[in-house]
Amino acid sequence: MVSIAASHAYAQDSGPVPADGVYTMLVGTYTGGKSEGIYVYRFDTKTGAATQVSVAKTVNPSFLVVSRDRRFVYAVNELPGDNGPATQRGGISAFGFDAARGQLTFLNKVSSDGNDPCYLSFSPDQKFLLTANYSVTPDPGGSFAVFPLQSDGQVGASVQTVHHEGGGPVKGRQDNSHVHSTVFSPDGRFMFAQDLGADKLYSYRYAPQGSPGPFAPTDWGYTQQKAGTGPRHLIFGADGKHAYLTSELAGTVSTFDYHDGRLKLVQTLSLAEPGFKGAVGAAAIHLSPDGRFVYASNRGDANEIVIFAVDPANGHLKKIGHQPSLGKSPREFAIDPSGNWLIVGNQLSDTVYVFKRDPRTGLLDPTPKQHFELGSPVDFKLVSPS
């Protein structure tokens, strides 16, 4: 039971279940078009309806995290982007959060110490905030950076930045390192940095009082992935003994056995159906609240959510369903804390769809109960307002 409790300790904690079933939902966006920043909604888990409450203006908040006490929200400012100057650094913005009123108050902003920050995670003790700097340019290249968190919620300047070297065989996508996520092990002792450019899952030991910084490479350094696959996002299963990885360029989900900081590849499944000839682009991956199902988004020409059942005996996955996202480029999605709804944002068609989920079978009702329009929606976090 220790590993089960630990594996959930570093996932998003939504807080106590509200009596009326209404959560506060934060939506991150890209702001180059119709969007202004972070949008706050009321999400009713009884009906699947979302009602907008407020918006906090900030540039390209494409990934969000909420502090364990739900008092603070942190967002990347994903810059410079494909067409921006390579000399420009991205940012990390901190906000005070009143979940009951659905209001965000800007606190401060620091440099992400790299280009194109695209992911955030807390250290297990919440002393540090980590970002993955994807970096579309070889200079400065992909990295992860570590920021101290202050008691008033503000984020401090980076205390450690780790750059990766090398690339992969896919021209234009793997010309240099592209760090896409920073994920902690269930026991909090290790951190894995998924590098889409180098086809590696880098592993680091976490020591809060470490020098010159809290993260040091493990003796084995990394878990090599097949060349050209492009590892993107990693999650751990409910038992803490298995991990699941989306590889963007290959359009696959892989299963690993996990033990004491080491990942062993045991299974790889295609997201696409047999005979599919279009472009693929694996993106987000999430576990159902009961740990029985894994969901992954597939972009490109597929534009769907793929559903897998978890074998409780060995952690292996079995594909059980596909659900079109009803739009273009489902970059991110979320399963609400009740497990009754899956909310997906279609980045390139400015829509959000809410699918009814069957907690027993894991399948989604193909006819969404609700949907709404929003410019480039790309991340969703739900928290209790109480």
Describe it.
The chain has one domain (2-383): YVTN repeat-like/Quinoprotein amine dehydrogenase (Methylamine Dehydrogenase, Chain H). It contains one helix and 28 strands. It has one helix at residues 2-9, and strands spanning 22-29, 37-44, 50-57, 64-66, 72-77, 91-98, 103-111, 117-122, 128-133, 143-148, 160-163, 179-184, 190-195, 200-206, 215-224, 231-236, 242-247, 252-259, 262-270, 282-287, 293-298, 304-310, 317-324, 333-335, 341-346, 351-356, 370-373, 377-383. The strands form seven sheets. Strands 3-2-1-28 form a four-stranded antiparallel beta sheet, with no helix packed on it. It has a four-stranded antiparallel beta sheet with strand order 4-5-6-7, with no helix packed on it. It has a four-stranded antiparallel beta sheet with strand order 8-9-10-11, with no helix packed on it. Residues 1-10 have low confidence and may be disordered.
Task: Name a few traits of the molecule.
386 residues, disordered N terminus, Methylamine Dehydrogenase, Chain H, globular, 1 helix, mainly beta, 4-stranded antiparallel beta sheet
Helix and strand topology:
Elements: H1 2-9, E1 22-29, E2 37-44, E3 50-57, E4 64-66, E5 72-77, E6 91-98, E7 103-111, E8 117-122, E9 128-133, E10 143-148, E11 160-163, E12 179-184, E13 190-195, E14 200-206, E15 215-224, E16 231-236, E17 242-247, E18 252-259, E19 262-270, E20 282-287, E21 293-298, E22 304-310, E23 317-324, E24 333-335, E25 341-346, E26 351-356, E27 370-373, E28 377-383
Antiparallel strand pairs: 1-2, 1-28, 2-3, 4-5, 5-6, 6-7, 8-9, 9-10, 10-11, 12-13, 13-14, 14-15, 16-17, 17-18, 18-19, 20-21, 21-22, 22-23, 24-25, 25-26, 26-27
